[in-house]
Write a structure and sequence with these properties.
The complex is a heterodimer of chains A (about 150) and B (about 60). With about 150 residues, chain A is an all-alpha fold. In chain B, helix 1 crosses helix 2. Chain B has a two-stranded antiparallel sheet. The chains are: A mainly alpha (about 150), B mainly alpha (about 60).
């Protein structure tokens, strides 16, 4: 498989995943997009092994490695900070001072620390943050290791 | 000297042309494996192709 065919395949998979995501939102079935996403990644990895053109050497591998490492270093801090609040939601740890607004209502539940819809928005934000971090670091390291150098040949 | 383009060398040693260019410009330090592959391609010792510099000072390997 040629390099350009591979990139075309990635584009097609991305568009298909976008359509499946939209459909799974319509039918309210997150399992569909989750399985499709994993399948899409597996197909990309398998197709990558069939590429005959050289698309990666030790320099590009180093750029990828450095960008991934830096993304991870920043992302895990933000992710852990959010996860701690999500764990608080599970454990129902009360915030202090206690909110006494609903105490007069019988059988009322304590107020949620973070509503489920908000968790979804934060997850979306984290996903976007991870993508932007990776792209940013990749551009930085590509520039550092001479990706856009030109010669006078 | 060898009448060879960067593309030719890149293909011969299995890297991209951009990597050869980055090495020439001093933007990327190749691994030992790649350095030896380049030297072996030109049938010379690795010291004849690469020099080791510390803070702008060339270090004599011998």
């Amino acid at each position: 498989m040629k390099k350009n065919t591979f990139y075309l395949l990635i584009g097609c998979i991305a568009l298909t995943l976008l359509a499946i995501f939209w459909y799974s939102v319509e039918i309210n079935n997150p399992l569909l997009i989750e399985i499709s996403f994993i399948l899409g990644i597996v197909i990309i990895y398998l197709a990558r092994r069939k590429v005959t053109d050289l698309i990666e050497d030790e320099r590009s591998a180093k750029i990828t490695e450095k960008a991934a490492l830096r993304t991870f270093q920043v992302f895990w801090v933000v992710f852990c900070a959010f996860s701690i609040s999500a764990v608080m939601q599970i454990l129902r740890v009360p915030s202090f001072p206690r909110n006494r607004t609903f105490e007069h209502i019988p059988n009322s539940l304590p107020p949620e620390i973070m509503p489920p819809r908000m968790i979804g928005y934060v997850q979306l934000g984290l996903l976007c943050l991870m993508i932007f971090l990776y792209v940013g670091f990749r551009l930085y390291y590509a520039r550092k290791y001479g990706d856009w150098e030109t010669d006078e040949e | 000297m060898h009448d060879m383009t960067q593309e030719d060398l890149a293909q011969a040693i299995g890297v991209t042309r951009q990597t050869i260019l980055a090495i020439e410009k001093g933007k990327y330090v190749p691994s030992l494996d790649l350095a030896f592959r380049i030297a072996r391609h030109f049938n010379v010792n690795v010291e004849e192709v690469f020099t080791y510099e510390v803070e702008g000072r060339t270090v004599d390997i011998d």
